[in-house]
């Protein structure tokens, strides 16, 4: 360290420890970062998570398989459909159920709609954090449209609980399809609008280029997935590598970055939105007719004929505990199943002991793993760039803390 | 650096393009609504406030205390008490829903074999008292009356009673033609 003038007269400089969050508007929820700053430069950063812990993994152990599904809505609450689908796919693989083709196409379609919705929110907040407020307003305009589509379909805007084990809960209705067609016709122009505003904007470029750089090898070592990894140029996408639902029948590209900085990840996500529109168009064209629920799909109540009779004074606030212990409904075993959530690879690790509820459910949530990479990404940058880094890895604390 | 790049840099072309776009949008119709004064229409099947269907024939609730809703409820917010021995028909004594715990997944509506419980399209029920959103049986029936009062049609159908596209053979008999007549509005 250089000897400054101040030290000569008995004063000295020291690193300042600064708390950012958990109530900071730019930390996207209740993320707390302890920054050690030298002037304005971040020397070290320690993320503290757990402020939104609700114990979803533990709660799942006390519920039958279909009743766990609404809990997964609350993980990454801005892309709840993908969480639901990921959970349902995991349980289907456990039980050996194959959903009918129409259900697969509907799920694929809605996964991509959710991806658009999630990326819109990411772009909105990321741009707002960096200082582009117009983008924020325009993104929410389109996101509102998407949420209305979800409402038409299933009656909820965010916590949809749309799929179910072995298919989906209800078929797409005509009103939804008409509106969806209008949306995908309009949406590519809207992406162009966002790009007009920020893509070449010199302030945006100054704030994003060369910030939070991570090389491909290092990104893999940190366990990054999703667009955060692909921004560094690693071609890894669960939709291509381990296809689920109808992704293996659909033609789409994986956009890749090269520099691994904030700007490349931004470009990746913008291209992903375009690819999502492409996937939705293909799904609409190819969607087969037929049933939407597999024949052997379990009912919502997991068919609890074997459970002991409840007497008249029974308090049901314990019903989940009382039932399904006596009869075997699922094969014993354990499995890991992953889907490509908008944030990255969302994995469900389920251990089944043969009863109607999971013995253990472990979530591999991308946000948690990405949050661990924040120190690596923001070391040596300014405090203002920490905001850009948090935005670029696109974390949602609901999923991070579970 | 080409001439084009220099021109872009000097004349702030990209910023002017952005400003042109915002100016264009400035003259379009606003997408926002002034909420308490105007309300957006809610799609049919919106999962809002709970209600218990008042049977048009008996004027009472339809629930038979089969406990299925309480069984599937992920947040375990339904509390049921009934009398009646095994083998006899049950008599419902208490049916309570704690709306603060409810996560509005709609499983209870979907699983109910009698179409007794429903999530109505009503969504403005915030209140100053905690007890107001702790719905007991009478309150749930009252919610239904309030909901029915605003319906223009003479029939009510909730889309979770018979989800679109689900094989009808999977559903219990009462769900296959699940429609409630609301021809007489005596209940209010």
What do you see in this structure?
The complex is a heterodimer of chains A (402) and B (188). Chain A has 402 residues and is mostly helical. Chain A has one domain (16-399): Cytochrome-c3 Hydrogenase, chain B (Orthogonal Bundle). In chain A, 47% of the residues lie in helices and 12% in strands. Chain A is built from 17 helices and 8 strands. In chain A, a hairpin with a 2-residue loop joins strand 6 and strand 7. In chain A, helix 4 (80-95) runs antiparallel to helix 5 (101-130) and helix 5 (101-130) packs antiparallel against helix 16 (383-393). The longest helix of chain A is centred in the first third of the chain and has 30 residues, at 101-130. Chain A is globular. Chain B is of the alpha+beta class and 188 residues long. Chain B is built from 6 helices and 7 strands. In chain B, the strands form 3 sheets. Chain B has a 3-stranded antiparallel sheet. In chain B, strand 2 (78-83) and strand 3 (91-98) form a beta hairpin. The longest helix of chain B has 14 residues, at 13-26. The mean pLDDT of chain B is 82. The interface between A and B is large, with 53 and 49 residues.
Record the SSE blueprint.
The complex is a heterodimer of chains A (402) and B (188).
Chain A: H1 5-8, E1 16-20, E2 32-38, E3 41-48, H2 56-60, H3 65-73, H4 80-95, H5 101-130, H6 133-154, E4 163-164, E5 167-168, H7 174-198, H8 202-208, H9 216-221, H10 226-230, H11 238-241, H12 262-286, H13 319-322, E6 333-341, E7 344-352, E8 360-364, H14 366-372, H15 374-378, H16 383-393, H17 397-401
Antiparallel strand pairs in A: 1-2, 2-3, 4-5, 6-7, 7-8
Helix pairs in contact in A: 3-4, 4-5, 5-6, 5-12, 5-16, 6-7, 7-12
Chain B: H1 3-11, H2 13-26, E1 50-52, H3 68-72, E2 78-83, E3 91-98, H4 107-111, E4 117-119, E5 134-135, H5 137-149, E6 155-156, H6 173-176, E7 180-181
